[in-house]
Amino acid sequence: MSAKHNDIQQNRVIDGLKAIGQGMATVFSHYFRPPITLEYPEVMPDLSTRFHGRLCLLSKSDGTDLCVGCQACARVCPCTDLIQIEMHRDVNKKPVIDMFTIDMGRCIFCGNCTEVCPVDCIKMLPDFELADYSREALVLDKKDLTLSGEDSDHWRLVHGMEPLVQ
Predict the structure, then answer these.
(1) Among 50, 52, 72, 65, which Cα is nearest to 116's?
(2) Could you read off the pLDDT of 69-121 as tens digits, one per residue?
(3) What CA–CA distance (Å, rounded) separates 85 from 67?
(4) For strand 139-140 and strand 83-89, is the pairing parallel, antiparallel, or unpaired?
């Protein structure tokens, strides 16, 4: 072995020890910090009020439909055919929603539908546990989406809106 080869091996050993020392310094610097991760699902995260979770339909205070069936939410959705709405008008020319479905398995939670709604009917809840065993179960219909009148009033109150809607 030449002296040059021994110098190269000594430098590699020193570089390796420096790297181990830097790694251990990083480990010890994090050792006394409080943990950042949560023990989910035992500890639920604090979500922002702006969190985009499961979609819902608010209803009027008496529990009747607030949606007017304008389909603005379906038109603005970047995921084609995600929101399906069928409606007709009754004898008093009031809109009656026959079908309202949202495929939550395809939703990208962009919130465009909530921003464009002219009557503030479609909103996003802080629900994020949407997993299911089949894709069909992720297609929510009007019954699954609609909050009761009382729940809708509570949602409006929490989010700074007028709680009673007639």
Answers:
(1) 72
(2) 999 999 999 998 899 999 999 999 988 999 999 999 999 999 999 999 999 99
(3) 10
(4) unpaired
Quickly list H helices, 61-141.
72-76, 112-116
Strand ranges across the sheet with 83-89 = 83-89, 95-103, 139-140
- Could you tell me which residues come within 8 angstroms of residue 64 by beta carbon, excluding any fewer than 6 positions away? 149
Beta strands 122-124 and 95-103 are unpaired
Tokens found for residue 142: 């009007």
Task: Retrieve residue 35's tokens.
Answer: 């943990």
What's this model's pTM, rounded to 2 decimal places? Answer: 0.74
Q: Tokens 């699902």 belong to which residue? A: 41
CA distance 152 to 64: 11
CA proximity to 126, closest of 52, 46, 45, 38: 52
